[in-house]
Design a protein that fits this description.
five-stranded mixed β-sheet, rod-shaped, 2 domains, 43% helix, Alpha-Beta Plaits, alpha/beta, single chain
Length: 191
């Protein structure tokens, strides 16, 4: 009888052990399901964020009028397209950057307000790399024909013969850079 009891005890222990392992497997599968759900959620979230970023990147380039195809540095010149021969219209708002090259306080803000009141899109205001600029000038970033810079220069009273240049730079995502010099008091916004 002892042998029978021992065998039955061993069988019961084995059954208990099997039941405990089954419970552990169930809890592991629940944890695995939760981890799988979280991983899937994060992956889909990243996919959605990436799609949004790609869409915003594409629309940003779609909105900007591209007058020249430029590769490399800002001193390289691309080929002319038919669009570059067309003057800017009110439909295409000219994107302008205002840089203070004279060091006078409030000059950039006053010119920004002046240009915005006249329909220009001022996308950046800041300081030039130094404050030793004597004469204000406009740099066309999109057209070697200086179409955009000439429009801004006319409104501001910058001399078209000496105060307008073309240095193409597609990385800046703007049409014209204005560098304010020490002659700023002679410009239209300050008269």
């Amino acid at each position: 009888m002892n042998i029978k009891n021992r065998r039955q005890n061993k069988i019961r222990k084995f059954q208990k052990k099997v039941q405990q392992e089954a419970k552990k497997k169930k809890s592991k599968t629940k944890n695995e399901i939760v981890k799988s759900f979280i991983t899937s959620f994060l992956i889909w979230g990243l996919v959605i964020v990436n799609l949004f970023l790609i869409a915003s990147f594409v629309t940003r380039f779609w909105e900007t009028p591209s007058n020249k195809e430029i590769t490399g540095t800002s001193t390289e010149v691309g080929k002319d397209t038919e669009e570059s021969q067309q003057p800017p219209t009110t439909k295409t708002m000219i994107k302008v950057e205002v840089l203070n090259g004279c060091g006078a306080l409030g000059v950039g803000k006053q010119i920004t307000n002046f240009l915005r009141d006249r329909g220009f899109d001022v996308v950046g205001v800041g300081n030039y790399d130094n404050f030793n600029v004597n004469y204000t000038y406009a740099i066309d970033r999109k057209s070697m024909d200086k179409i955009y810079a000439n429009e801004v220069a006319k409104v501001m009273g910058i001399k078209l013969e000496t105060g307008v240049a073309a240095i193409l730079n597609s990385e800046k995502m703007l049409d014209v850079s204005i560098v304010i010099g020490h002659d700023y008091k002679d410009l239209v916004p300050f008269k």
